[in-house]
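Posting for a labmate who doesn't have an account.
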Amino acid sequence: MGLRRLLRHLLMPHWWVIRAFDRATLTAIATAVADSERRHRGELRFVVEGLLPVGDLLRGITARQRASDLFAQLRVWDTEENSGILIYVQLADRRVEILADRGIAARVAQSDWDAICRAMERAFKAGDYRGGALEAMRQAGEILARHFPAGERNPNELPDMPVVL
């Protein structure tokens, strides 16, 4: 673990997370998730974390590893068709990761999700957190609608509201 990374995590105030993802932005993301999920059978979860827990930071946990842990903790894997998607934003490291459950990963290349991640990172770097997140929801929804179109039965299996850690 580098000193720069350690300092970024230790010195980042929680209010920065709230400023980047205020109540209106979180509500807009939740609405975008709900609208998107009407068009497909996938389940989207959006998680924002300002800084890693100290134990994870000291163990050198990457944003991808943390996303994997949260994928399990939030039970994103626990959908009927294995169609859960986690969009994880790690603000201190300035990283975005998208993890897809095995039902989706069998049909959609990780490079498609990585392209959405990099676009979000560029938008966030420019200070456009709301726009970057909403565009990611739109793009993810298009991919899911193509591979998992909505059917007669389309339950909402995971909460739509983003999680802020």
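Reply:
Got it, the structure tokens are right above this. The longest helix spans residues 129-147.
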